[in-house]
Specification:
It is a single chain. With 457 residues, the protein is mainly alpha-helical. The protein folds into two domains: 231 residues, Clc chloride channel (Orthogonal Bundle), CATH 1.10.3080.10; 207 residues, Clc chloride channel. It has 19 helices and no strands. α5 packs antiparallel against α6 and α11 packs antiparallel against α14. The two termini are 36 Å apart.
């Protein structure tokens, strides 16, 4: 065995002795390749699982975003009795795998990766990556309300942690490796490399910025995006939502209104999610029964509001265009942000496996859609002809504020929607939402530290 360890030791010594540029070119590209391949693997696993469970067994056609195929799907169920059973079964099997093989893979995953940055960048076990991938694919594929970013963040962060252990990197380099792993994994799966790089530098703190992770994050995120896009395509997840938008000062009052509403809904999202976590911990039952019950409740809710199932990106896509949004009943548009909050809390907050970033984007999309629908009915000035602008800026504000990563999320959503033209107005929306949230102690990521000083880094 000494012979097997010797090459790794030599490689580790070479990396540790390298200058800044060479070290982070090597590490950044290596982590980026794994992040891209991990994102592809998880996407395919999630897609095939969904096609089999909801598609074949449930005979339900789930709407998909433009970047995922652009299928308009269906709002009705051919086998309504099967939907609650499928969601419950997927949640139970996912929870069983987690409880048996890697209990730390429970929940949304991003928090555990952030915690590793602050406490021990060597701590993420290799098996967590595989368990998280399988369990999250089952959760989302069976209809659970969760996002795809948690597993991909844990895959690439786990590889950064593995490199830190095997190459015996310093704690400082290890923290950067895990951080850029988080950002590149999320950036790859959403097709948002610049946003992913900025996210790597901002997601670990509530009111600070880890500048050491920014430049290595550029290399890693670009590499991950190149790998992912080369296999699955480079089109934005939601297509080009508002390609012809031109900034108009008359829109500013509406941007301010959306910022206030988005902050309130984001606050409610974080509070409801962690209240569900706390309640679940107090209730009787084991680590399998609780997520299974949560899945059953989500399945029953979906019989009335099918838009809550799975990631919901397809419904967010439909909400971004006037003709498709108007086909969705007004009461569903108005209630969907709350319904998606409840569904995500029941799916992930009860111990299920999946991300909370993605649902936050969908929640924000329907906040913007709801504001547009109501504003359009009033006939007041400054209301755009279509909901796309409101949908995009609300996506940015709703989750960017409560994640304490306003710049990163704003860039990511602009990349996901091909909508950089809305950024001037979105700065008003996101700025208002973030300032309101920053006056509270609420964050959707509990593992975040306040700043580098309080984190002791």
């Amino acid at each position: 065995m000494p012979e097997a360890r010797k090459p790794a030791g030599a490689v580790g010594a070479f990396i540790r002795g390298s200058g800044y540029l060479r070290k982070w070119l090597i590490l950044g590209i290596a982590i980026g390749i794994i992040a891209g391949l991990g994102a592809v693997t998880f996407y395919l696993a999630m897609d095939y699982t969904g096609r089999f469970l909801l598609g074949h067994l449930g005979d339900y056609d789930v709407p998909t975003a433009d970047g995922d195929g652009g299928d308009p799907g269906d709002a009705g169920f051919a086998r309504p009795w099967a939907i609650p059973l499928i969601v419950m079964g997927g949640a139970a099997l996912s929870a069983l795998i987690v409880a048996r093989f890697a209990p730390e893979a429970e929940g949304h995953g991003t928090d555990s990766a952030i915690e590793a940055v602050h406490t021990d960048p060597r701590a993420i076990r290799a098996r967590v990556v595989l368990v998280k991938m399988i369990s999250s694919a089952l959760t989302i594929g069976s209809g659970g309300s969760a996002g795809r970013e948690g597993p991909t963040a844990q895959i690439s962060a786990g590889f950064g942690s593995l490199l830190t252990r095997r190459l015996d990197l310093s704690d400082e380099d290890g923290r950067v490796a895990v951080s850029i792993g988080i950002g590149s994994g999320i950036g790859a799966i959403f097709g948002a490399p610049l946003g992913g790089a900025v996210l790597a530098a901002s997601i670990v703190y509530r009111s600070d910025f880890d500048y050491k992770s920014l430049v290595p994050g550029f290399i890693t995120s670009a590499t991950a995006y190149a790998v992912y896009g080369s296999i699955l395509g480079f089109d934005p997840l939601f297509g080009f939502v508002v390609p012809d938008y031109r900034f108009d000062a008359a829109d500013l009052p509406w941007f301010a209104v959306i910022g206030i509403v988005a902050a309130a809904v984001g606050y409610l999202y974080a509070r409801t999610f962690y209240a569900t976590v706390a309640l679940t911990n107090r209730l009787p039952g084991n680590k399998v029964i609780k997520p299974a019950v949560g899945g059953l409740l989500v399945g029953l809710m979906a019989l009335v509001i099918p838009q809550i199932l799975s990631s919901g990106y397809g419904w967010a896509q439909l909400a971004s265009a006037r003709d498709t949004l108007l086909t969705i009943p007004l009461w569903i548009v108005l209630i969907l942000p709350l319904a998606k909050i409840v569904a995500t809390s029941l799916t992930v907050g009860t111990g299920g496996s999946g991300g909370i970033f993605g649902p936050g984007i969908v929640i924000g999309a329907f906040v913007g859609a709801a504001v547009w629908r109501l504003a359009d009915l009033t006939g007041l000035p400054g209301v755009p002809d279509g909901p796309g602008v409101f949908v995009v800026v609300a996506m940015m504000a709703c989750f960017g504020s409560v994640a304490h990563a306003p710049l990163a999320v704003m860039i990511m959503v602009a990349e996901m929607t091909g909508s950089f033209s809305v950024v001037p107005g979105a700065m008003i929306t996101v700025g208002i939402a973030y300032m309101l949230i920053s006056r509270t102690d609420v964050s959707v990521y509990k593992a975040q530290r306040l700043d580098r000083e309080t984190a002791g880094e």
